Amino acid sequence: MTILDGKKVSDDIKDEIAAAVAVMKERGERIPHLAAVLVGNDGASLTYVGSKVRACERVGFRSTLIRLPNTTSEIELLKEIDELNKDEDIDGFIVQLPLPKQIDTQKVLMAIDPDKDVDGFHPTNFGKMALDMTTFIPATPFGIIELLERYNVETKGKHTVVIGRSHIVGRPMSILMGRRGFPGNSTVTLTHSHTKNISQITTQADIIITALGVPGFLKAEMVKDDVVVIDVGITRVPDETRKRGYYITGDVDFENVSKKSTYITPVPGGVGPMTIAMLLKNTLLACEWRRQTT
Prior knowledge:
294 residues, 3-stranded parallel beta sheet, 10 helices, Rossmann fold, 40% helix, single chain, 2 domains, alpha/beta
């Protein structure tokens, strides 16, 4: 059994990006600039955006954090996005989700310039991804693909079962795993909350990618021997015996499922660290693509 170490791979990717930025500086080229918009004071969002800012510093990017109050109106946020779209100094930006209830998330995502949409959520970029065109791939699926590639996990001809159909992970992963090339060329089954007899499907899977957010959902009896397991789920489970008052776990019963796996991601330390690394990679790509077209 091999652990797919997202912490190590994400560090490798950040080192590669930092080296590319150093070369850009030597050539006198403009270095990548990532902006993030944070509306409100959601604890998890604050932590995540803080991690992104620190990651930018590590690789040598410029970063801008725009903080708006929880009372921000949809019109005010759309105005901020329009300014970022027009700002020639910004290569890419993200709007941190979730947004307050008075704001239509879909309208906000649609307003982002697809050429600056480094989260890869705009329908234009999602459509290009589905058509195998060059575009921004959503950061978490991009990270999973990168893990599979760097560990040389065989996907051709394999049966991949994706659990969860969100636009952020499940649906894009079902497209990417079925695309031509590596990683890809697998036969994909997309399962969700209305799928009947899910255990019968997962026991036939060579690769399982689960993004449910249900702690310990995938049990050992639900997988076959030599399975590859990618656990995207991450849940805080209250536990007063722990110093923090909680522990973090994934969708997979790691202790038992790992005994039947050839490759498996841990939680934490698997897919999670890859997400920010791939956001940085998308920002570097955005900067390079802009330079080629100007």
